[in-house]
């Protein structure tokens, strides 16, 4: 019996210790919607075709992705190449879970010779480079120009103030009976971030132990949402309880004149609306012109995990993303503007109408942008959920804007010190 | 016929042989045993340890004593989630049992193609809480949904109310969805009903019992062990209900569908407060245990076993 056990155990251990074979695929991971997944899978196939390196993809939706990556990190089994978000990368760097890419860059395995230093500075922490910017994105106000013209109204300009926009949304609804803007996207916490920046404030103070905005700012914001909601210019708050997917949002079905979104997601709407409404118009978030409240954010980082077994192959993957000509012509700037100047101008000269608009917008938006905010604290997710709760409570009429604002501030300050 | 055999004195060799058979037995259940220890016992007791720590899944756990349990008392959402869950369990369990039993009674009658119906009625349980169901639910019970359409048609007025999105009704729409998942209880009821001897009913028929009397005085008592089993299962599963709330409402609006298991998930996997989530899991374990013990104790008075 003992012998049998010993043999069994030995077999198990052997199975665990088989050395990593040279032609083992590189494990890559990302989050994404169905349409993004298609792009990344095609990109990865192109990568295999160009380099002969096989890949193994792990991809999930945004929320599930971080659950999985966290669990894998705890188990010391992270994929070789992981996509990181600006909100999370610092935490991973602090815990020593990501590899410093500097040696790989110096060895030319990740070629950054066409990349301006400012384009990769977001991934630099201390002396190390822990993530290569996959492209830049930003918030945008997408406007369905055809719907607006049909109503005999003007598309907002970049100089439009926030208050004018609120009035515009309500006026559009009163004229047409359709929605002025889409509540599914309007409840985005990042939109409030821009609103706070319009008042010279941020979501968190520098020490990140308290909120960085005033009670008045948040109260005003909640009041404006309520004003639009109660006028019927956005859908009823009960109708956004169940997230029915971007493709089913009123804006995607030409039932809302405008929506706040991110440049990456803009293409989803643009493609859905192209046939019926033509091109959309892109504007900065109203009220951001004077204060330069906008920001250009790295859309994602490509990082290599500290426990990676296939470091060179992961580096080749990142290099191909950054410098692969065919691949970038295929991606067509939909993941943000490529960081390599050479690739960026190559892509820009081959764009279709929809992507060209996003490219142009990013350049315009940069003029209305100031410094990027500091990476968010760990409690940000929890605070974001509470933000939605308090906003919902205002729209349901269960709390006044001021009560809800005070509650969110109290909640945030407590969570930040926990 | 029995013969009494006097046991011969056990020799050294025989004892060794018996030990060997025991070992062989253990060897056979070894895969299961390893599974139990590695995948159930160890994680379970590790979670008990984690419930006394601050742990974000990335760094090492820090011992903080009973702080997680103390924080729970001050956590409004914790109490809210507890209240929502009790309401959910107390409404869902009887409703689901009743609908499972009712359908089972119909499906044990002799009709053509009854096997097909049994399969069809089990389908909703297989679908479970999928994204497709979430979208269907939002469509049926949304402002412009089929449900409002029926009400409008019946009442002759335009009726628009988002049943799944409003604070006052969102939980009930989830309870309805839970009732719809009666399939597995139903199958157990079907097999239970089929085992009731036909002679009981024949005797009742001779005595002139009506259908209700037959149901009340034969089916129910004879079925009581099965009801008991389904009740215990139902209570445990209802306390652990999670995916419907996550996928359809995500706990909203205003935490009105924040089931306890969903709140545990959020704390653990969205906010990465694993220690706190583990502590809440143990609270849930205690609650479920109390209810199970209560049902077991009460069973003496209403569950009838044949022997």
| Domains of chain A (count) | 2
Give the mean pLDDT of chain B.
88
- Name the overall outline of chain B: flat
Structural class of the secondary structure composition of chain A? Answer: alpha/beta
CATH architecture of the largest domain in chain A: 3-Layer(aba) Sandwich
- The best one-word shape of chain A is globular
Spans of chain A of 5+ residues with little confidence (pLDDT < 50)?
17-21
End-to-end separation of chain A: 53 Å
* Beta-strand residue fraction of chain B: under 5%
The residue-averaged pLDDT of chain A reads 89
- N- and C-termini, Cα separation of chain B: 25 Å
What does this structure look like?
The complex is a heterodimer of chains A (418) and B (307). Chain A is α/β, with parallel strands linked by helices. Chain A has two domains: 185 residues, 3-Layer(aba) Sandwich (D-Maltodextrin-Binding Protein, domain 2); 196 residues, Periplasmic binding protein-like II (D-Maltodextrin-Binding Protein, domain 2, 3-Layer(aba) Sandwich), CATH 3.40.190.10. Helix content of chain A is 49%, strand content 11%. Chain A is built from 18 helices and 13 strands. In chain A, the strands form four sheets. Chain A has a five-stranded mixed sheet with strand order 2-1-3-13-6. In chain A, β4 and β5 form a beta hairpin. In chain A, α8 runs parallel beside α11 and α17 runs antiparallel to α18. Chain A is globular, with a radius of gyration of 23 Å. Chain B starts with 11 loop residues before the first helix and ends in a 5-residue tail after the last helix. Chain B has 13 helices and two strands; from the N terminus they run αββαααααααααααα. Chain B has a domain of 181 residues: MetI-like fold. With 307 residues, chain B is an all-alpha fold. The relative contact order of chain B is 0.12. The mean pLDDT of chain B is 88. The interface between A and B is medium-sized, with 33 and 32 residues.
């Amino acid at each position: 019996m003992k012998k049998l056990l010993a043999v069994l155990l030995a077999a198990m251990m052997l199975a665990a210790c088989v050395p990593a074979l040279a032609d083992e695929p590189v494990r890559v991971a990302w989050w994404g919607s169905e349409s993004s997944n298609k792009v990344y899978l095609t990109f990865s196939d192109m990568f295999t075709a160009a380099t002969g390196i096989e890949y193994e993809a792990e991809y999930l939706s945004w929320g599930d992705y971080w659950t999985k990556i966290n669990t894998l990190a705890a188990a010391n089994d992270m994929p070789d190449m992981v996509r990181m978000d600006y909100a999370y990368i610092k935490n991973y760097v602090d815990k020593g879970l990501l590899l410093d890419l500097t040696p790989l860059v110096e060895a030319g395995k990740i070629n950054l010779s066409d990349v301006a230093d400012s384009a990769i500075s977001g991934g630099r922490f201390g002396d190390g480079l822990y993530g290569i910017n996959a492209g830049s994105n930003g918030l945008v106000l997408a406007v369905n120009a055809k719907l607006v013209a049909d109503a005999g109204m003007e598309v907002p300009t970049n100089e439009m103030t926030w208050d004018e926009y609120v009035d515009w949304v309500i006026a559009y609804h009163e004229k047409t009976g359709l929605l002025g803007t889409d509540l599914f996207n309007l409840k985005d916490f990042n939109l409030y971030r821009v609103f706070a920046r319009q008042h010279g404030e941020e979501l968190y103070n520098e020490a990140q132990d308290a909120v960085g905005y005033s009670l008045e700012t948040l109260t005003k914001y909640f009041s404006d949402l309520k004003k639009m909601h109660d006028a019927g210019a956005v859908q009823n708050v009960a109708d956004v309880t169940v997230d029915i997917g971007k493709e089913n949002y009123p804006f995607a079905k030409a039932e809302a004149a405008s929506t706040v979104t991110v440049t990456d997601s803009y293409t989803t709407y643009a493609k859905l609306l192209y046939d019926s409404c033509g091109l959309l118009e892109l504007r900065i978030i109203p009220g951001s012109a004077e204060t330069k409240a906008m920001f250009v954010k790295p859309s994602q980082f490509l990082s290599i995990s500290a426990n990676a077994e296939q470091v060179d192959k992961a580096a080749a993957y990142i290099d191909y993303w950054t410098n692969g000509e065919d691949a970038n012509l295929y991606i067509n700037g939909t993941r943000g503007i490529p960081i390599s100047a050479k690739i960026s101008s190559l892509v820009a000269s081959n764009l279709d109408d929809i992507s060209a608009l996003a490219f142009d917008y990013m350049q315009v938006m940069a003029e209305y942008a100031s410094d990027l905010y500091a990476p968010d604290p760990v409690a940000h997710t929890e605070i974001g959920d509470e933000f939605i709760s308090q906003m919902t409570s205002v729209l349901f009429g269960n709390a006044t804007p001021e009560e809800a604002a005070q509650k969110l501030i109290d909640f945030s300050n407590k969570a930040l010190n926990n | 016929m029995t013969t009494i055999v006097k046991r011969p004195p056990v020799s050294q060799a025989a004892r060794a042989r018996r030990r060997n058979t025991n070992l062989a037995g253990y060897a056979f259940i070894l895969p299961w045993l390893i599974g139990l220890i590695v995948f159930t016992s160890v994680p379970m007791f590790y979670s008990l340890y984690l419930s006394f720590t601050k742990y974000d899944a990335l760094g090492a756990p820090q011992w903080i004593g009973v702080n997680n349990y103390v924080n729970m008392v001050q956590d409004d959402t914790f109490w809210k989630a507890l209240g929502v869950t009790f309401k959910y369990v107390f409404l869902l369990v009887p409703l689901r049992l009743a609908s499972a039993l009712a359908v089972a009674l119909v499906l044990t009658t002799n009709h053509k193609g009854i096997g097909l119906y049994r399969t069809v009625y089990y389908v909703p349980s297989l679908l479970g809480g999928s994204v497709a169901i979430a979208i269907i639910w939002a469509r049926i019970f949304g402002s412009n949904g089929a449900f409002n359409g029926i009400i409008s048609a019946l009442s002759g007025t335009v009726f628009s109310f988002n049943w799944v999105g409003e604070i006052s009704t969102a939980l009930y729409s989830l309870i309805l969805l839970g009732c719809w998942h009666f399939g597995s209880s139903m199958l157990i009821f079907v097999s239970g009903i089929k085992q009731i001897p036909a002679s009981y009913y024949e005797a009742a028929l001779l005595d002139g019992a009506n259908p209700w009397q037959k149901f009340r005085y034969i089916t129910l008592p004879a079925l009581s062990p099965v009801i008991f089993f389904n009740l215990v299962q139902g209570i445990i599963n209802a306390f652990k209900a999670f995916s419907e709330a996550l996928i359809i409402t995500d706990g909203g609006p205003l935490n009105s569908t924040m089931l306890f298991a969903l709140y545990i998930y959020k704390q653990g996997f969205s906010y990465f407060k694993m220690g706190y989530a583990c502590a809440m899991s143990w609270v849930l374990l205690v609650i479920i245990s109390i209810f199970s013990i209560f049902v077991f104790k009460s069973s003496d008075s209403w569950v009838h076993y044949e022997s």
